[in-house]
């Protein structure tokens, strides 16, 4: 049985352009890669669109994408979901399936985004620390050698940013990351 190993190399690069200046980020410290590409280097470019939590939840009459066109763009969302004292709104303080990063990535992909970026909020790091994220997302992944049909599936890039990097994303937007409405 042939196995396919995929792993992001430690020397992988990610830069964020701010005011025509590229700011390099350190893999493992500043960012992690969720979806590993099937082939060699992938270059990702695009305008950023902030989608708050990146959730569409019709049963709660909630849509972070309302009025936004994310086609071909990089969606940026916060980890988690809105919380409330009202148990009928996102189950109050309990997390629902909408808090899942995978759910958010699928929504962004369905709406035509080209890349998805999740900014881990401090509240999320209180539940799962960055070391745990890093340990999980930097390990090798193994699968049975993909068939031609699996290899032809579109790759949807997804990146997780440490909250310390949020200042780069929100620079010159008029918002302070810590003050962005999250709940």
Q: How many β strands by DSSP? A: 11
**Count of runs of 4 or more consecutive helical residues:** 5
Helices and strands: which structural class? Answer: alpha/beta
The separation of the N and C termini measures 48 Å
Q: Main sheet, how many strands, which sense, barrel?
A: 5 strands, mixed
Order of helices and strands: EEEEEEEEHEHHEHEH
Give the spatial strand order of the biggest sheet: 4-11-9-8-5
**Mean pLDDT score:** 82
- How much of the sequence lies in strands comes to 15-25%
Rg for CA atoms: 17 Å
Percent of residues in helices comes to: 10-25%
Q: Runs with pLDDT <50, length 5+? A: none
> What shape does the CA trace take?
globular
Structure description:
The structure is a single chain. The chain is of the alpha/beta class. The protein is 18% helix and 24% strand. The protein has five helices and eleven strands; from the N terminus they run E-E-E-E-E-E-E-E-H-E-H-H-E-H-E-H.
């Amino acid at each position: 049985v042939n196995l396919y190993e995929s792993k992001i190399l430690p020397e992988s690069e990610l830069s964020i352009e701010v005011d025509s200046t590229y700011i390099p980020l350190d893999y493992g410290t500043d960012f992690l890669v969720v979806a590993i590409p099937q082939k060699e280097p992938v270059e990702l470019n695009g305008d950023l669109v902030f989608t708050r939590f990146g959730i569409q939840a019709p049963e709660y009459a909630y849509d972070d994408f309302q009025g936004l066109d994310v086609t071909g763009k990089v969606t940026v969302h916060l980890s988690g979901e809105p919380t409330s004292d009202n148990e009928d709104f996102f189950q109050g303080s309990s997390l629902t399936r909408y808090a899942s990063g995978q759910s958010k990535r699928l929504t962004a992909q369905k709406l035509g985004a080209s890349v998805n970026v999740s900014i881990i909020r401090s509240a999320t790091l209180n539940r799962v620390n960055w070391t745990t994220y890093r340990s999980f997302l930097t390990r090798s992944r193994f699968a049975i050698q993909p068939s031609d049909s699996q290899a032809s599936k579109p790759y949807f890039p997804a990146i997780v940013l440490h909250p310390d990097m949020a200042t780069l994303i929100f620079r010159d937007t008029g918002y302070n990351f810590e003050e962005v409405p999250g709940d």
